[in-house]
Write a structure and sequence with these properties.
single chain; alpha/beta; seven-stranded mixed sheet; 11 helices; globular
């Protein structure tokens, strides 16, 4: 039986050209933001704690300017054609982000995209500042406030090949459980360090070419180590 494909895409720096979370906190935060991110990258604080500290560091908040910065951000021009390609071939796409639903929804709405599921941290925005919440927090994962690996595990059927497209630290868990990884920037180094096979990409034209090749194959085999890790994760979950 030929396997189907499901694609999980990072948002900041992947679907969207800029890293919105970094751009926004750089505009409104201070040194405390840099310290929080540094501690997170060293593994000394969890992903959700990093975001709480980033939001707490915001000073002199201006909602109009906040929204204006978001409205300047653009999607990768190759993403819209890629999305149409996936629709044509009945390939599901999900957006997974350790950023915020507030700016993702606002940007996607500007591009008239409403049919792609988005899983992200939630952000309440008012005139006084930013209040985050974490509906997808995994208590067993400190890497991210929204563990993308959990979605890759739980949001694909047994006959679907899991494909991850990402660029950064928050994509590591997703890469661990993926059958096929498209990587750039920091994610490339993680894949190299952990011996995860990957395809380097610069935009979604590259991803489309590879996926077209996959669709021509008679059979698609899951990545053996990823399959083992998924089984182990489900076994642990069942015993908790």
């Amino acid at each position: 039986m030929k396997k189907r494909i499901k694609i999980f895409c990072d948002f900041d720096g992947t679907v969207c050209l800029g890293d919105n979370r970094t751009i926004l906190f750089r505009a409104f935060g201070g040194d405390d933001v840099h310290e929080a991110v540094s501690l997170w990258l060293k593994g000394e604080i969890s992903g959700d704690e990093c975001i709480r500290r980033e939001c707490a560091a915001v000073q002199n908040f201006d909602r109009e300017r906040f929204d204006s910065i978001i409205d300047e951000q653009e999607l990768d021009p190759s993403f819209l054609p890629f999305m149409e390609f996936c629709r044509t071939h009945t390939i599901e796409i999900e957006i997974l982000s350790d950023g915020f639903d507030y700016y993702i929804d606002r940007i996607l709405k500007r591009y008239n995209i409403s049919d792609i599921p988005v899983y992200a941290n939630e952000l309440q925005v008012d005139d006084s500042g930013l209040v985050p919440s974490f509906p997808h927090l995994n208590q067993y994962c400190s890497r991210s406030a929204n563990c993308k690996g959990t979605h890759v595990l739980n949001h694909a059927a047994d006959d679907q090949l899991r494909v991850v497209v990402g660029d950064g630290y928050s994509d590591r868990c997703a890469a661990d459980y993926a059958d096929i990884v498209f990587a750039k920037r920091q994610l490339i180094q993680y894949c190299r360090d952990t011996n995860i096979s990957y395809f380097e990409f610069s935009d979604f034209h590259d991803v489309r070419e590879r996926v077209e090749g996959l669709l021509k194959k008679k059979r698609l085999a899951p990545r053996h180590r990823a399959e083992i890790r998924r089984r182990e994760a489900f076994r642990i979950e069942a015993n908790v």
